[in-house]
Amino acid sequence: MTYVVTDNCIKCKYTDCVDVCPVDCFHEGPNFLAIDPDECIDCTLCVAECPAEAIFAEDDVPAGMENFIALNAELVKTWPVIIERKDPAPDADEWVKVKNKLEHLER
């Protein structure tokens, strides 16, 4: 089982999770982070660190967000690895409350 970044991360991109990841499995896009399922060791450390509550175990991804499992696997193939915490999006605190943001995902 791997962990998956879901909808809540879009346009927020808090990177608290990156700081605690022991295997550098996070990849950074313009306004979203993704987890490499081949690198993730299921340590669960990132889940508690995510202020947006956007990270779930693959088996626990909320209903309607199952497409994020494949999306994470797809995006990590072209996005660079992120290994250091960065500032979130300037308006992250406003976007974290918004639901169904997939249309705002920038590739």
Structure commentary:
The protein is built from four helices and four strands; from the N terminus they run E-H-E-E-H-E-H-H. The termini are far apart. The chain has 107 residues and is an alpha+beta fold. It has helices spanning 16-20, 45-49, 67-75, 92-95; strands at residues 3-5, 26-28, 33-35, 55-57. The chain has a two-stranded antiparallel ribbon. It has a single domain, classed as Alpha-Beta Plaits.
Features:
two-stranded antiparallel sheet; 107 residues; globular; Alpha-Beta Plaits; 4 strands; single chain; alpha+beta
Largest sheet: 2 strands, antiparallel
Query: How many extended strands?
Result: 4
Q: What is the succession of H and E elements?
A: EHEEHEHH
Which class of secondary structure composition applies to the elements?
A: alpha+beta
